[in-house]
């Protein structure tokens, strides 16, 4: 079968909300030595979130000098940060997350990011999703390579929440795709019994395309059945919330249901705040509040499964230390990674903090990266997913961990 014909079939599957696959998506995975019931959720904040206004270095006078309009006030001041450790504070719009910090299941890795210096959203996101910064030839994503290290348990083992598969999950191993929001459970033409029967007759063979369709249909049936059962029980007649919280609720219900979902990815946009970013109030604060509500919903709905789940939140790069003339910030470098979960040794800001003095800044304008994002993820894979060193090397080829963040895990 030629590539054009294959893509036509792949488009059909994607439109039906089934299992999008890579060009070799039907390739069988070998049995890995690792067996684990641990879960991993990765949330990507597209646009380059301003990490300095998320986890605020409020004891650093250079922070306030660089941001006269958008800096978050010090603790106990009106609209002030929520003190974390006496040096860093959390944006007040994230107040809903403070109980997780206090109970020790939320941590941050500051001055974290990609070693590549690009300020292009497209390139930076692709580098972070491929896991090979600076290398444009990598065709698969690190979460797909991670999937390859795990024993196969079913067609919904890895789930992408979104209208299309993100690069981080692209590769040889097939993943299930769940549309966002109310589209997740909407009826499709392929659900009609007559059409469904016709498709089953058409794709009953054993060649790769037929097997891909069969796997996709199986994945969809599992996802819909799990969501339908969980929604009836948990909603109790109440209307579902909108936006991010709706998606995190759906995802949590898959993980606590019968779908065997172990890996999941979702992305949120709107973090490219060049204009009118705001301080404790404003567009940035509003987005953070919705993000916090979605995360709290996710943790609540996961219930006991949360103890076996790690949630990593990252963005392609940070923002400039100095605010710009439009009351916003421009593309920067270093950022902050968020990590939540039952296995994290939370209540702490990890990473090496070099400060915001002009001599410490990257190219004289940005927070420097002192922790490679792969280091943070590698520690998660080793300590939480329990991968061996050679398996981590498969996920991040060419990267050598320095194991500095092992102490972040229980």
UniProtKB/TrEMBL annotation:
Protein name, entry field: Tat pathway signal sequence domain protein
Pfam families in the record, alphabetically? DUF1501
């Amino acid at each position: 079968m030629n590539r054009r014909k294959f893509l036509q079939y792949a488009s059909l599957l994607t439109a039906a909300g089934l299992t999008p696959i890579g060009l070799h998506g039907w390739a069988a995975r070998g049995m890995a030595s690792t067996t684990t019931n641990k879960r991993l959720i990765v949330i990507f904040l597209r646009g380059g979130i301003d990490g300095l206004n998320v986890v605020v270095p409020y004891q650093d006078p250079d922070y306030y000098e660089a941001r006269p309009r958008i800096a978050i006030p010090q603790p106990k001041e009106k609209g002030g940060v929520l003190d974390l450790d006496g040096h860093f504070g959390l944006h007040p719009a994230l107040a809903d997350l403070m109980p997780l910090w206090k109970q020790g299941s939320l941590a941050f890795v500051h001055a974290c990011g990609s070693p590549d210096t690009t300020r292009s959203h497209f390139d930076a996101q692709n580098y972070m999703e491929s896991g090979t910064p600076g290398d444009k030839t990598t065709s698969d994503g690190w979460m797909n390579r991670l999937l390859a290290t795990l024993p196969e348990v079913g067609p919904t083992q890895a789930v992408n929440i979104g209208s299309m598969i993100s690069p981080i999950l692209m590769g040889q191993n097939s993943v299930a795709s769940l549309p966002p929001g109310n589209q997740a459970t909407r009826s499709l033409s392929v659900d009609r019994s007559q059409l469904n029967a016709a498709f089953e007759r058409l794709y009953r063979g054993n060649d790769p395309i037929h097997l891909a369709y069969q796997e996709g249909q199986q994945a969809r049936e599992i996802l819909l059945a799990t969501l339908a059962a969980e929604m009836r029980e948990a909603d109790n007649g109440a209307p579902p919330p909108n936006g991010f919280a709706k998606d995190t609720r759906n995802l949590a219900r898959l993980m606590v249901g019968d779908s065997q979902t172990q890996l999941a990815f979702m992305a949120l946009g709107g973090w490219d705040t060049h204009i009118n970013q705001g301080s404790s109030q404003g567009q940035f604060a509003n987005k953070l509040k919705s993000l916090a509500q979605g995360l709290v919903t996710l943790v609540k709905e996961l219930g006991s499964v949360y103890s076996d789940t790690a949630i990593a939140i990252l963005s392609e790069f940070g923002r400039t230390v100095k605010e710009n003339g439009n009351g916003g910030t421009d593309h920067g470098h270093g950022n902050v990674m968020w990590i939540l979960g039952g296995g994290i040794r939370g209540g702490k800001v990890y990473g090496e903090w070099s400060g915001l003095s002009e001599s410490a800044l990257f190219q004289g304008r940005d927070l420097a990266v002192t922790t490679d994002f792969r280091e943070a993820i590698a520690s998660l894979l080793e300590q939480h997913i329990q991968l061996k060193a050679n398996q981590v090397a498969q996920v991040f080829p060419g990267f050598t961990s320095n194991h500095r963040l092992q102490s972040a895990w229980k």
